[in-house]
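Onboarding guide, step 5: your first structure request.
Type a short instruction followed by the sequence, for example:

Predict the 3D structure of this protein.
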Amino acid sequence: MRRYQVIAWAALAWIVVGAAPASAGWVIDQVTGGGGRGGRMQVLIQANRMKNVVLGTDGQPAMAFIVDLDAETITQVDYRGQRYMTATIQQYEQMMGAARLAASGQMAGAIEQMQGVLKDMPPERRQKLEQIMRSRMGQAGQAAQECQEPRIEARRTDQQANIAGYPAVRFDLLAEGRPDSEVWIAPGITAWKEMDPQKLERFAAEMGKLAGCGAGRGGGFGADLSLKLAGEGYPVRSVHLASGATVEVVKAESRAIPAAEFQPPTGFTPQTLQRLLGQ
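The system replies with structure tokens like these:
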């Protein structure tokens, strides 16, 4: 489940959308670090579509998360397994929300959450999926504690730096008045200006549900950025103070991106939502 939370937060934190397919998009390389882990990612943005690619140690794509805000779909691509899954944003939210509830021991809530996915399934398939969900409960607690997301405030500072070749300004994020994160914003990376605000807001709301209460501010601080600082520019460096988790852009360029980049690779095998949950 942790893997899906990371993917969901990454998508929410960096989701931006472009203009028309003929216009130039953005290709942004970034590195993550801190918290005992690190990695490399590439974000491709164009025409209301975003592709977040996780790179392996060999520099080759390992996994990708593709969002099409016009079609309202999410596609996960497993490059090593040469397979992919596509679902509507609503179906994806229902499935992943159910997996989170099942992991916390809330079986009744998990089944209710999955109604949109289960309704068209044959009875025997539905029963099998419910058994899979029960097996995932393990020794988890019988109920998750209620919690409330903190109030986030962004404050601009006078500190400036050149990051990945772009002038950037530091913003401090406070959670309930306490220092939470440092974020450097580069106005010269204009990807945010090409987004559809209403579609972004709807997508952000759905992805926010996936993280759940207590998912960890180390992943969530970027999600708060997506709506609070979008008008200022693109985040080129983010540091979560408590965990030490970092995300930093190392290269960003504006250029046309082939439409095929936002589709599953040719020859890859499609898999269902149910199969993904059962793995």
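Each response can be followed by summary notes, for example: Confidence is low (pLDDT under 50) at residues 1-11, 13-22, 137-146, 214-224.
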